[in-house]
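Onboarding guide, step 5: your first structure request.
Type a short instruction followed by the sequence, for example:

Predict the 3D structure of this protein.
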Amino acid sequence: MQFTVIGAGAIGGTVGAHLRRAGHDVLFCDADRDHVAAINDSGLHITGPVEDFTVHAPAVTPEDLPERLSGVVLVSVKTHHTASAAAQLRGRLDPGTTVVSLQNGLTYDVLGDAVGKENLVVCFVNFGADYLAPGLIIQGNVGTFRIGELDGRSTERLALIAEALPYAQPTDTILGYLWAKEAYGAMLFAGAVSDLSIADSLERPEYRALMLAVAREVLAQAPVSPVGFDGFEPDDLEGSLQRLVAFNRGSAKSHSGIYRDLAVRHRPTEVAEQIDVLAGPLTHHVGALIRAIERGERVCEVANLDLLAAYERLYRLGVPLNAVVAALPAPPRASDGPLHGMSIAVKDIIDVAGSPRGNGNPIDMAGPAAPADAPMITALRAAGADVFALTSLLEYAAGAPHPDLPEARNPARTAGAARTAGGSSGGSAALVGAGVCPAALGTDTGGSVRIPAAYCGVVGFKPSHGVLDLTGVTPLSPTLDHLGLLTDSVATAATVMAAVTGEPYDVTAEPRARYRIGVLAGQLADPRLDPALAAITRDAVRRLESAGIMVTERDSSVLDEAAACLEDILLVEAWQVHGATVQADPEHFGAPTLRLFQAAGNVPAERRDAALERRATVLPRAAALLDGVDALLGPAVPYPAPADTPTIDTPEGEIEGIFSGPYNVTGQPAVVIPCGVTADGLPVGLQLAAGIGQDAALLRVAAAVETALADTADPSRRRVDIGSVIAGQ
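The system replies with structure tokens like these:
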């Protein structure tokens, strides 16, 4: 038989070489002039563990392709070259010539339109083959090879061509094979953004959920029943992963052709034709990362695969919690740095270039994109972090969700009852608590980082006022506003702080016995504190003492005085920020937020001035509480996570920030860390605070407390498994 091979690379070259060795007439056509020259000079050499042989056959570049073609034309170009190959074949085929697609992807329509669908048959090829050098191709294994008519018929030409092609078998379900390979191919595309081998990317447990998810996205779109091959079974994806690992471990081809295009040959991939045509958020993110690598903005590295895994968790765990405003595809970042590859989410009240600053408000969420990053985002990117998602919040961080936007739910659930993640940085706390990412940004005006941290069982750190730049952040009360962090550990918080401030934040703790902690006895005795939380916090103090940390009591009354200043400062400043909009366009706000801001408009500015004067007298006395101790300790919140965030004008809302708010007034650094769970499994946090500017020292103490609590934990005590009990799971 007479064969013309259009695209003599890995697959076309391998198949054509086998055909030529079997005695068929073969003409190779390839755009790589060096490859063509090598074939003409020395033949085409196939190497590898399967076979080792050389064939001699003529080769031409596309411009020298004969004017007429007959017999069988094998098309094996990259899918993004399909249109040009189809244009070459249009009007060039003799009657009775059959075109056979050996391509990946779903390109048969493009070829069929050019040559006539009646002249087209399609192959599924799963050889592990690679182009190594001009005239040299490695065949790594022998995989499934199927050929079929698009309509599933058994025809004479199908039988003849199948008999000639190496290892090929005819099938009446070729589209089922192609769609199954699309799913497998999506996993290969995902793995190709890293430098891991195919087998390693499929085998590592941290990427298992990602690989299964991208395959499911593709299979859900298949218009036919996908057909399994080489260990990949669409009805058993879980089992397929290990079988595919074994299949690829047995191949001399360790990495996909996609990876070789990106990292070795530095040429465009087939991403647009194979990934972009598919629906689904994860395949979208895979495509965005590959295009970023093609543009030279990223390199193939495991950090990219870690980012894709974070996206998978974002959609699986974060979205059901109402925690996600938007995912940010292939975010720009420095190629290295202390936060290299760390996925960080951002409260949607902070400017991220290219995205609206949504503020928990539907109108703002549909508004213009921020032209530039806030300085904090710039610092994170410069440190190598992947700023990958925007998180939900209470409207304008003012104490209530907008009625048209669901509030973030707590990843910890008890008896099937959903709880709030807290406010206003609830989305950020929920994502960290669910294990989606190790860190997220929040803002804190009266406890909006630390309250959600306590509810969701994560670390919440509010630095000293002004340590983190608030430029590009929607203000609520500039005197009280802070940027803060929600993290999975104190160490993570310290790592982020060191990266963005340039200051040392070493929390490799000195001996615990060196630390002295002042327990705020009045707060623990406050009648508004839930008895269960009081008991758990006291138990934590006892555990710290048993671990060698020295504990003494401190009078918290001065912090109560600080708390009494907060409302007048906040309300007057909130009106200064939002009052003009309230007067001009009250419908811009949700009803609860509007009521708050309207009430704020009735507070005379003199009350703020008086509160600031009282604050000035409080500050030195609050600082004096730390004489002789390294940190103050008290409860984080007065009650466990409620079903919904209480509005500020309710009794529950009025007391929610009684323990957190004082440190916004004083500007001191404060951190919340988990210290236990209630009898029904809700997280409990304790709060530590230090003096102004003692941020790093506070985190060192917090790290020691965190370690001590972990070391003295009662294994029989019920604990919440944050992230495993998710809404809808």
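Each response can be followed by summary notes, for example: The first strand starts at residue 2 and ends at 6.
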